[in-house]
Amino acid sequence: MLKIGVLVSGGGTNLQAIIDNINTGNITNSKIEVVISNNPNAFALERAKKAGIDTVCISPKDYSDRSLFNKALIEKIDEYNVDLIVLAGCMVVMPPELIQKYNNKIINIHPALIPSFCGKGFYGLHVHEEALKRGVKITGATVHFVDEGTDTGPIILQKAVEVRQDDTPEILQRRVMEEAEWKIMPKAIDLIANGKVKVEDRKVYISGGTK
Ligand code: GAR
Questions:
Q1: Is 110 a residue of the active site?
Q2: Could you give the CA distance from residue 140 to residue 146 in angstroms, rounded to a whole number?
Q3: Does the predicted model carry a pTM greater than 0.85?
Q4: Using one digit for the tens of pLDDT, what is the confidence trace for 157-201?
Q5: What residues does ligand 1 touch, defined as CB less than 6 Å away?
Q6: 90: CA distance to ligand 1 center in Å?
């Protein structure tokens, strides 16, 4: 059984997709042990409580310096003894010590087709604003392992989504979530939980393919 810790900051629709897919049996062999938020008001915490999952808030604002926050976060994750850390709309930069300790055990969902519209400053709605500004016709979402860089880790799954010419950032964000994020994140977790994901030379190989 894969023990999962989910890190969130906001609405938690990706968290909800994971909970729902565990409940329907689309994600097998997995259990969410804890949901951790940096934001005490994140609606994601309500979703977790409703599903009977332990919740914890660890905010950088409650610590006098970043290293103390990092230490508290790592200690909490260690306490739950998780096998996989899922960043589901988590807007906090992960401590390098955590990334080293949980090498290829942290995954993130990014709302674009990496390497487009990613890196520093590309998060949430901004990503879709930039995609619309650039006039791309296709965007999408990416699930990737987290390494020391920003959105630079090995790519696990990607899914393309059409951009329409009358899209607003909000409309595009919603389509990317519905058509891509809420599908590939649960799928990636199921693949990992069933031992089908291997990383070699910064590339991901999935046994049996992705279909
Ligand atoms: C999602 O669109 C996710 O891809 C994005 O934040 C949103 C969170 O929504 N993440 C990033 O931009 C990370 N760089 P949610 O809280 O409803 O899951």
A1: yes
A2: 18
A3: yes
A4: 999 999 999 999 999 999 999 999 999 999 999 999 999 999 999
A5: 8, 10-14, 44, 88-89, 109-111, 123-124, 127, 177, 181
A6: 7
